[in-house]
UniProtKB/TrEMBL annotation:
GO MF annotations in UniProt: electron transfer activity; molybdenum ion binding; molybdopterin cofactor binding; oxidoreductase activity
Matches recorded under Gene3D superfamilies: 2.40.40.20, 3.40.50.740, ADC-like domains (2.20.25.90), Dimethylsulfoxide Reductase, domain 2 (3.40.228.10)
Residue intervals of the Molybdopterin dinucleotide-binding domain: 759-855
Family matches, as InterPro entries: Asp_de-COase-like_dom_sf, MoPterin_dinucl-bd_dom, Mopterin_OxRdtase, Mopterin_OxRdtase_prok_CS, Prok_Mopterin_Oxidored, TAT_signal, TAT_signal_bac_arc
Keyword list, A-Z: Metal-binding, Molybdenum, Oxidoreductase, Signal
Organism placement in taxonomy: Bacteria, Bacillati, Actinomycetota, Coriobacteriia, Eggerthellales
A GO cellular component entry from the record: outer membrane-bounded periplasmic space
Keyword Electron transport belongs to the record: no
Pfam family, one: Molybdopterin
Annotated ranges, domain Molybdopterin oxidoreductase: 117-605
Any one GO biological process: anaerobic respiration
Required cofactor names: Mo-bis(molybdopterin guanine dinucleotide)
Organism: Eggerthella sinensis
Family membership noted in the UniProt record: Belongs to the prokaryotic molybdopterin-containing oxidoreductase family.
Protein name per the record: Dimethyl sulfoxide reductase subunit A
Length: 897
């Protein structure tokens, strides 16, 4: 391990003693001023600081996009980041829990000071500017590197941007990113927007089909407040694994429900860690078949209700608050047969959606479907909590409406202890209004908070308001035509095929000649990684700016080393709705790393851009503006007051322009504690029951949908979906077999003869990674395995054993992995974590790292969401050798000079 982990030290790269002393002096002064409020009791923290007399605890950012928003501290002694800590500002209680940090957050030290940290600007040896044969694109990913100066690197990048724009137009520059239009806006995207623009990409990742569809049907991605959830009789975790994918508080909060007596059912492709901790029952289901399962549950409830004379279904709610459930509740112009109830009963299509019908598709035995459906219908307070994972499927578009129908008929909407919906993949999005507001929401900056830089309009594609919210969330909803953006599923195929889909019957030529990678690692994280490699070898120029030697960096021509958050001025970050965190600089920039902002400025100057429009403020000023604008809710639960008291002395110390202000806590207290948490209690005014006002009075509180009601039947949704060019759906949700779904694992469905790819594969979010972030960190590779999960019955049939390496192949690529046979898996279904750094053996074409996107295909569907959980594969023994992950050498290009 000695090679792979350098002792963390900031001495070489300059956490100067002077800045350290200045900073710690500031804290000492601040402690005297601090007043106690919020969950953060200053005494506790003072004790912590005193015990640490020799060094200081610094609140340090964990910026990875896992949505968990843990809280990390670093103990800095003699200029070295010695150890990691977490929130100890107050007693840990269920109402006011400490914000934990997770294994990944604690591994940030190893990440930032790791051997493969990018140290210097670099150029790929065989690449020369000017396009054409100068590029030697076929060598991307296998070429050698040359260390170059920042000036050389910036000249190359600026000259190539200029040449490519002059030759092919601005559309030839693609800035890939799931949130490129937003993240990119912070630096490179803003700069390019002032230089004629760049080609953006669109299409949901996290939210699957849910995020785009929710606004059409009125089912916001929103849950009840965590304290309300303790009143649930039953919580159905439907495709939801917070113990792995929401580190920290969400599972702890569910535990409080469990302790209060809530029963849990997990409906999932595997008995995941959350189910193991909480669930009374696990219902194994095949991926991408949840619509069939939910339809059969609806069928069961309809039958039982009929037998009980209408006593079971919440007809009153359906009548007042929804459209499309039955023929009597269809909008004008709809055909009478196109209603949910008749579709479920098979009135017009001769196929009642019975449990027996669904069982053949989803694998859940008919009696279990009936039993679970009736339990949901007969239990008073039920929460149906679905993550977006089941909708990250090729047929995922029908899921939100189906779940809406089921939740609505069973009375699980708009009451205390009752809710139905999706948590959007980040539980911190849940639960109504934010109690403390301000700063960046790391990893998903769809929220622009007061004080932050303005977005600049990209002349190509523009800032795209979503049809419903008017919010700049082009990431979820397809903006209205004219439409110049590449769907994320076509990022690579557009280069290889020469065209991209701009809408129905609207296929346009693709001009891509350059990829500018910043803030993302899409070659690794988008379906079709082998196509991504091919596409990268086909274009004229690729540049990456990052912290470490990621996949996109590896396949680039120029690589620029960027500072991590620990090397920057600090950051104000909103956590769950109750917390706000202020991180501080831990060390001066390492090696030759520079901030993204600086890079963009330097490029802008070289391109002759009017930089007045670009740089509107310094990072210090931006941080201060966010601090000054931060607000906290008052006890009434409705109005807000400023969060911070900021004195003239604080302003002078920050070196910013502003005016002193009065707020709830002092700036120094926040800076010292690093976190502020709004205290909660059982009957405070901060509770939230989603859709309650609507349920109580739908006329007075209409939803943002076309009808103002929950739309089980949605013509506008169908129209917009079909306008994307990949679907022909009608306004009612129907079960459609998925592309690369269960049905396609068979060569012959009737005789149940399996085909070339007999297994279904699901990508899971696992503890080792936050996407591809941390994929390189040796201690995490050691701590968490990254196997192919398979049921022992399947393993036995194939003669495979745990540990034995296997070759997993799909029509898109091949990966080698150790096998884990475990009865937590549904038979016929496999799982592989997402995030491993693709590492293709050029001789065999096999990825030895287990990057699941090598297996995933960029199937073009629906609202252009990425449908990773629809994937079919074959598995066979692999005898090509496989080094244990923990023994991998880091991608260290240059040693420390
Ligand atoms: N450790 C870690 N945590 C993360 C992340 C990370 O990379 N690492 N990423 C963060 C981000 S950005 C996001 S968007 C979220 C994603 O979080 P989620 O959207 O919740 O995704 P997963 O955790 O992969 O899957 C949740 C559960 O759904 C199940 N599932 C998958 N497909 C199906 C299906 O077709 N039907 C059913 N019924 N169940 C299914 C999985 O087995 C899993 O138990 O995670 C966040 N948290
Ligand atoms: N097969 C499969 N693939 C998936 C998923 C799945 O379920 N299955 N989940 C998907 C989901 S939900 C998501 S959200 C995506 C996430 O995919 P990405 O958005 O690509 O996320 P990361 O892989 O974490 O890459 C982020 C990169 O940004 C870099 N970075 C961080 N901060 C800075 C900065 O300040 N400046 C610069 N220049 N770089 C910075 C990090 O070092 C890292 O390399 O992955 C998706 N990919
Ligand atoms: Mo995500």
């Amino acid at each position: 391990m000695a090679d792979t982990y350098r002792e963390p030290t900031t001495t070489s790269a300059g956490f100067t003693r002077r800045s350290f002393l200045k900073w710690s002096g500031a804290i000492a002064a601040g402690a005297a001023l601090a007043t106690s409020s919020g969950c953060g009791l200053t005494e506790a923290n003072e004790a912590q600081q005193e015990a640490a007399a020799e060094g200081r605890w610094v609140s340090a950012q964990c910026w990875a996009d896992c949505g968990s928003r843990g809280f990390n501290k670093v103990y800095v002694k003699d200029g070295k980041a010695v150890k990691m800590g977490t929130d100890e500002t107050h007693e840990d209680t269920p109402n006011c829990p400490r914000v934990r940090s997770c294994a990944r957050g604690r591994a940030q030290r190893a990440h930032i000071f790791g051997a493969d940290r990018l140290k210097y600007p670099m150029k790929r040896k065989s690449w020369q500017p000017g396009g054409g044969s100068n590029t030697n694109g076929q060598l991307r990913g296998i070429d050698e590197w040359e260390r170059i100066s920042w000036d050389e690197a910036l000249d190359y990048v600026a000259d190539e941007i200029k040449r490519i724009v002059d030759t092919y137009g601005n559309e030839a520059i693609v800035v890939p990113g799931f949130v490129a239009s937003l993240f990119g806006q912070w630096d490179i995207g803003r700069m390019l927007s002032l230089y004629g623009g760049y080609m953006d990409n669109w299409g949901a990742c996290s939210s699957g089909a849910w995020g785009s569809i929710a606004p059409y049907i009125g089912l916001a991605e929103d849950f009840n407040d965590r304290i309300d959830m303790r009143s649930c009789d039953l919580i159905v975790l439907w495709g939801s694994n917070p113990a792995w994918s929401r580190a920290g508080l969400p599972t702890y909060n569910y535990l409080q429900s469990k302790k209060a007596g809530t029963r849990f059912i997990s409906i999932d492709i595997f008995r995941n860690a959350t189910a193991q901790a909480l669930a009374d029952e696990w219902v194994p289901v095949r991926p991408g078949t949840d619509v069939a399962l939910a339809l059969a549950m609806a069928y069961t409830v309809l039958q039982a209700d009929e037998a009980e004379g209408g006593a079971l279904i919440d007809w009153d709610f359906l009548d007042r608050c929804t459209i499309g459930f039955d023929a009597a509740h269809l909008p004008d112009g709809a055909a009478e047969q196109d209603n949910f109830k008749d579709y479920v009963l098979g009135t017009y299509d001769d196929q009642p959606k019975t449990p027996a019908w669904a069982a053949e598709i989803c694998g859940v035995p008919a009696d279990v479907i009936e039993e679970v459906a009736l339990e949901i219908a007969r239990t008073e307070k039920v929460a149906i909590c679905m993550s977006p994972a089941p909708s990250r499927t090729t047929n995922g578009c029908a899921l939100p409406q189906t779940i809406l129908a089921l939740g609505a008929m069973c009375g699980c909407i708009g009451k205390p202890g009752c809710m139905t919906g999706s948590d959007a993949g980040h539980t911190w999005l849940m639960e109504g209004i934010d109690l403390v507001v301000g700063g960046n929401i790391q990893g998903d900056p769809t929220w622009f908070t007061p004080g932050a830089k303005e977005m600049l309009e990209n002349p190509i594609g523009g800032v795209s308001p979503s049809r419903f919210t008017g919010a700049p969330n082009g990431m979820y909803t397809r903006p209205q035509a004219p439409y110049t953006r590449i769907n994320v599923n076509e990022l690579w195929t557009s280069v290889l095929e020469g065209t991209y889909t701009a809408g129905k019957d609207d296929v346009r030529p693709c001009k891509t000649q350059m990829f500018y990678h910043t803030h993302s690692n899409l070659m690794n994280q988008t379906p079709g990684t082998m196509l991504a490699i091919e596409a990268h070898r086909a274009v004229e120029f690729v540049v990456t700016q990052n912290i470490v030697m990621t996949t996109t960096a590896k396949y680039s021509d120029i690589v620029l080393p960027i500072t991590s958050q620990w090397e920057r001025v600090g950051d104000l970050t909103q956590g769950y709705r109750e917390q706000i965190m202020l991180s501080s600089r831990v060390t001066e920039p390492l090696f030759e790393a520079k901030d993204d902002l600086w890079v963009a400025e330097q490029l802008g100057q070289r391109l002759g851009i009017d930089m007045d429009k670009f740089v509107v403020m310094t990072p210090e000023q931006e941080l201060y503006n966010q601090l000054a604008a931060a607000t906290v809710i008052k006890e009434d639960g409705k109005t807000y007051e400023p969060l911070l008291t900021i004195t003239q002395e604080d302003l002078d110390e920050m070196g910013v322009e502003g005016a002193p202000q009065e707020g709830k806590i002092t700036y120094r207290q926040l800076k010292e504690n690093g976190i502020y948490q709004v205290p909660r209690s059982e009957n405070d005014n901060f509770g939230h029951v989603c859709l309650k006002e609507f349920r109580d009075d739908p006329e007075a509180n209409p939803l943002g949908t076309v009808s103002g009601k929950l739309e089980i039947y949605s013509p506008t949704l169908a129209e917009d979906l079909n306008a994307c060019g990949w679907s022909t759906v009608d306004p009612l949700p129907r079960y459609t077999p998925a592309i690369e779904g269960y049905e396609e694992t068979f060569a012959d469905w009737e005789t149940k003869t399996k085909g070339e790819y007999p297994f279904q594969l699901v990508s899971i979010h696992t503890p080792r990674f936050a996407h591809s972030t941390f994929g390189n960190v040796p201690i995490l590779r050691e701590a968490f395995d990254h196997p192919l999960y398979m049921n022992p019955m399947d393993g036995e049939a194939l003669g495979l054993k745990t540990g034995g390496p296997v070759l997993v192949s799909s029509k898109w690529g091949k990966v080698a992995r150790p096998l884990l046979l475990t009865d937590i898996m549904t038979p016929g279904v496999l799982a592989l974590g997402q995030g491993a750094w693709v590492d293709v053996d050029e001789k065999t074409g096999v990825d030895m790292a287990g990057c699941v996107n090598v297996l995933n295909g960029p199937n073009r569907v629906g609202f252009g969401h990425q449908a990773w959980n629809s994937c079919i594969v074959n598995v066979e023994p692999w005898d090509g050798g496989l080094l244990p992950d923990a023994q991998w050498q880091p991608r260290e290009v240059f040693k420390e000079a």
